[in-house]
Amino acid sequence: MKIAILSRNAKLYSTKRLIEAGQERGHEMRVIDHLRCFMDMGTDNPSIHYKDEEFNPGDFDAVIPRIGASVTFYGTSVVRQFEIMGTYCVNESVAISRSRDKLRSIQLLSRKGVGIPVTAFANSPDDVKGLIREVGGAPLVIKLLEGTQGIGVVLAETQKAAESVIEAFMGVKSNILIQEFIKEAGGSDLRCLVVDGKVIAAMQRTAPEGEFRSNIHRGGSAQLVKLTPKERATAVKAAQIMGLNVCGVDLLRSSRGPLVMEVNSSPGLEGIERATEKDVAGMIIECIEKNAKPNKTRTRGKG
């Protein structure tokens, strides 16, 4: 098959591993910078132009979107254009957009009965005290809706600090979520890699001393972890609710069971492959082989 990876940098670990895994299984892999694409939405022949090339329906059998959070709007429009052209996309544009909207994803998970930290959201500074009360008071976590990799996540340890930080964010018109602090998690979380409805790898990430954010990008460490059946089921259900075939689901271990923090539609592969020694990239390619339909016209033309 001919598989396109939408990625801004072919040298990134995750992109390189997907290329290697696809080539090892005999596929033709191509990296496309989605920000260099422009789209022709004519009804007769929808197409995508990339630099000096034109991609038409049937040119690719599958697309692996690796869309950064800062370019979600344009990146998902490119994914959607591939969908219009009839190309199988590992994660569909609407599912990527759904998971990137932190407030919407939390609301959907809550509606479907998935465990989440107690979360509050408001618009007015007049409601700050009510927000803090709803999540059980300080310490509490304040999250920028647009933040990624732990950026824009603040732990407020006192009522006064919480009020100050929330009012400051609101003062610059930033959208934030307020969440309860899960003390018993001990600065650790679980990253579950879900592919095609199954947890295929999991690791525990632990924050460095003096830090509560466990993201690898923030200096956190990772190690192999054994999930409980409930943790595994929670991760799978969260992926299904978001509509994602490939994703990372971040869980906290709490006194009332696993709680979903986030569902990531473009999870990094480096940390989890090294912690688990599993061929996660290869399993993503297997998912494509199972679900994508090869373009028979192009295949016959090559023969």
Question: Could you please describe the fold and organization of this structure?
Answer:
By secondary structure, this protein is an alpha+beta fold. It folds into 3 domains: 2-91, 3-Layer(aba) Sandwich (Rossmann fold); 98-102 and 184-285, D-amino Acid Aminotransferase, Chain A, domain 1 (2-Layer Sandwich), CATH 3.30.470.20; 119-181, Dna Ligase, domain 1 (2-Layer Sandwich), CATH 3.30.1490.20. The chain contains 10 helices and 16 strands. Strands 14-13-12-15-16 form a 5-stranded antiparallel sheet, sandwiched between helices. Strand 3 and strand 4 form a beta hairpin. Helix 1 packs across helix 9 (280-291) and helix 2 runs antiparallel to helix 3. Mean pLDDT is 91; it is low at 297-303.
Structural key phrases:
single chain, alpha+beta, D-amino Acid Aminotransferase, Chain A, domain 1, Dna Ligase, domain 1, 3 domains, 27% strand
Compact overview of the structure:
The protein is α+β, with helices and mostly antiparallel strands and 303 residues long.
In the CATH hierarchy, the architecture of the largest domain is 2-Layer Sandwich
What distance lies between the first and last C-alpha atoms, to the nearest angstrom? 13 Å
Q: How many helical elements? A: 10
How many whole angstroms does the radius of gyration measure? 21 Å
SSE series:
EHEEEEEHEHHEHEEHEEEEHEEHHH
| Top-tier CATH class of the largest domain | Alpha Beta
Number of domains: 3
% residues in beta strands: 25-35%
CATH homologous superfamily placement of the largest domain: ATP-grasp fold, B domain
Counting helices, strands and paired strands, the structural category is alpha+beta
Biggest sheet descriptor: 5 strands, antiparallel
